[in-house]
């Protein structure tokens, strides 16, 4: 059987560093793109211990030769780990992790590493376009502030600036985003050999990566005294960086007793959480996330991802509103909506509303569109109630006007249907159309056709950005269907949809 060289050297390296795994696991390398995946050649059962990894074999801020440089500079988290990774790579064969680093790709082609032209070409309109451009600016700042001063480190460790350039930093960031795990409080984030070879499957993982959480592995350095650490509880580690409590049975069986299950807190364990048939790929999970988050952090997407969402910025709603109403009108309606204690989700510089994968909008957006589309009379009544003495308490109760009988109180069980007037439904459709126009002049059908002709391996950026565009645009399509189904029903009942134009 053909085994590419880096894999063979890596296997020898694992043995030397006490990383053990059951014989049934096979690490398969795709000859076309060198990507690795893990398969089992024997049936695996829930609770089987399939691999053990000493924490000391992981590349972390604490285990790296750059530890003193990192500590002297006061770096931690992803920044500290980036320096550790760039440093060990710069040592070449002199690094204790050389064989591991040889197997690791140079970088993960996440959008952070795409050119600005590629970002515009592939991601315009998607949830990632703006975010990735902002990331790039922040990363340049981080590099200037935290990495470039290291060249004058007083620790005596000489760093070659070429090995710590912005480009090297970006590459290290891409590997950390896509392959690092949070190990424990002492080590923080780290690169974990073997554990980082498992691919992701949403909500269908086979293996969990766990640690008997304790600090006693960490040399004599006892500065960490977190209570959960002392308790020695098992905690599940996922490479989206969050620790979760174990959810699977704890009666661990070692497959064929090949591995010793110990409570040694210095060792990480990989445990099977459901039955896996011989011949199948063994998947981990990186968390429950939509395609924008998967592409952002890991550089891939999944078709039919149930966690997909699309966001509609408040700014876009205001743009829609400006096509119908004066800006004074829109401002006062938004101010009224806020007075009722509503707001969108808040991100760095924007306020937005989420549309879930089934095309359903958040109640906050419905209330805003409802308020926007109230007639002057109804709006006047409501405003009056709000401005009357003691209204704030009263108003956040039932808000009634002659024609409007809707509870606008935040937190109260409110029927979405009561808000879905014809005017709100029409507004939703128009806002969805505006949002869809951000993707440019190509139609959803054009995108679907292009995806069917696109090569997953050779045109990776195009492929995954098309999956993202299509999944977002399908949500907008569902939003339109959600809004228009009732519109038809209402019209059939003889209710007319009236466009409001208030000056
Ligand atoms: C932790 S590594 C997993 C091992 C990786 N396949 C390798 O070649 O080393 C994470 C990377 O694997 C790839 N990957 C993981 N799950 C995937 C999936 N379901 N579909 C496509 N690529 C995936 C992505 O490139 C991701 O950034």
UniProtKB/TrEMBL annotation:
The keyword Cell membrane does not apply. Residues 211-260 are annotated as: Disordered. Signal peptide: none annotated. One of its GO terms (biological process) is methylation. Its EC number is 2.1.1.-. InterPro entries: N-lys_methylase_SETD6 (IPR011383), SET_dom (IPR001214), SET_dom_sf (IPR046341), SETD3_SETD6_MTase (IPR050600). Keywords: Methyltransferase, Nucleus, S-adenosyl-L-methionine, Transferase. Residues 248-260 have a biased composition (Polar residues). GO terms for cellular component: nucleus. SUPFAM superfamilies: SET domain (SSF82199). Residues 108-287 form the SET domain. GO terms for molecular function: protein-lysine N-methyltransferase activity. It is found in: Nucleus. PROSITE patterns: SET. Belongs to the class V-like SAM-binding methyltransferase superfamily. Histone-lysine methyltransferase family. SETD6 subfamily. Protein-lysine N-methyltransferase. This is N-lysine methyltransferase. It comes from Daucus carota subsp. sativus (Carrot).
């Amino acid at each position: 059987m053909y085994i590419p060289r880096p894999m063979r050297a890596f296997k020898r390296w694992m043995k030397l560093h006490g990383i053990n795994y059951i014989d049934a696991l096979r690490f398969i390398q795709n000859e076309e793109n060198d990507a690795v995946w893990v398969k089992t050649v024997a049936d695996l059962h829930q609770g089987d211990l399939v691999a053990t990894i000493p924490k000391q074999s992981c590349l972390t801020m604490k285990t790296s030769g750059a530890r003193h440089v990192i500590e002297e500079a006061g770096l931690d988290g992803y920044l500290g780990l980036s320096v550790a990774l760039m440093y060990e790579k710069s040592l070449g064969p002199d690094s204790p992790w050389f064989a591991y680093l040889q197997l690791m790709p140079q970088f993960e082609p996440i959008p952070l590493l795409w050119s600005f032209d590629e970002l515009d070409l592939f991601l315009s309109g998607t949830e990632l376009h703006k975010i990735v451009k902002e990331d790039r600016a922040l990363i340049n700042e981080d590099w200037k502030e935290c990495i470039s001063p290291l060249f004058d480190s007083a620790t005596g460790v000489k760093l070659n600036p070429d090995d710590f350039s912005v480009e090297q930093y970006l590459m290290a960031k891409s590997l950390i985003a896509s392959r690092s795990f949070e190990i424990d409080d002492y080590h923080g984030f780290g690169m974990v050999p073997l554990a980082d070879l498992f691919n992701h499957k949403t909500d269908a993982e086979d293996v969990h990566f766990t640690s008997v959480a304790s600090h006693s592995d960490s040399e004599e350095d006892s500065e960490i005294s977190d209570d959960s650490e002392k308790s020695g509880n098992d905690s599940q580690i996922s490479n989206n960086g969050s620790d979760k409590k174990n959810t699977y049975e704890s009666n661990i069986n070692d497959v064929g007793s090949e591995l010793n299950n110990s409570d040694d807190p210095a060792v990480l364990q990989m445990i099977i959480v459901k039955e896996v048939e011989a011949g199948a790929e063994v998947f981990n999970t990186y968390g429950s996330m939509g395609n924008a988050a998967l592409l952002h952090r890991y550089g891939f997407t999944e078709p039919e991802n149930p966690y997909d969402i699309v966001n509609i910025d408040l700014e876009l709603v205001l743009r829609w509103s400006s096509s119908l109403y004066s800006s004074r009108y829109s401002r006062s309606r938004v101010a009224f909506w806020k007075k009722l204690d509503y707001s969108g989700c808040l991100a760095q510089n924007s306020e937005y509303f989420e549309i879930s994968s089934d095309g359903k909008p958040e109640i906050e957006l419905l209330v805003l569109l409802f308020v926007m589309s109230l007639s002057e009379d109804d709006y006047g009544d409501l405003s009056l109630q709000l401005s009357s003495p003691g209204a704030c308490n009263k108003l956040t109760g039932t808000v009634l006007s002659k024609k409007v009988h809707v509870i606008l109180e935040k937190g109260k069980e409110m029927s979405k249907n009561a808000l879905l007037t014809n005017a709100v439904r029409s507004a939703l459709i128009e806002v969805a159309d505006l949002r869809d126009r951000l993707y440019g002049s190509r139609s959803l059908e054009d995108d679907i056709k292009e995806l069917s002709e696109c090569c997953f391996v050779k045109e990776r950026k195009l492929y995954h950005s098309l999956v993202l565009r299509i999944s977002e645009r399908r949500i907008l399509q569902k939003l339109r269907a959600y809004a228009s189904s009732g519109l038809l029903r209402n019209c059939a009942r003889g209710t007319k949809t009236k466009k409001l134009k208030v000056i």
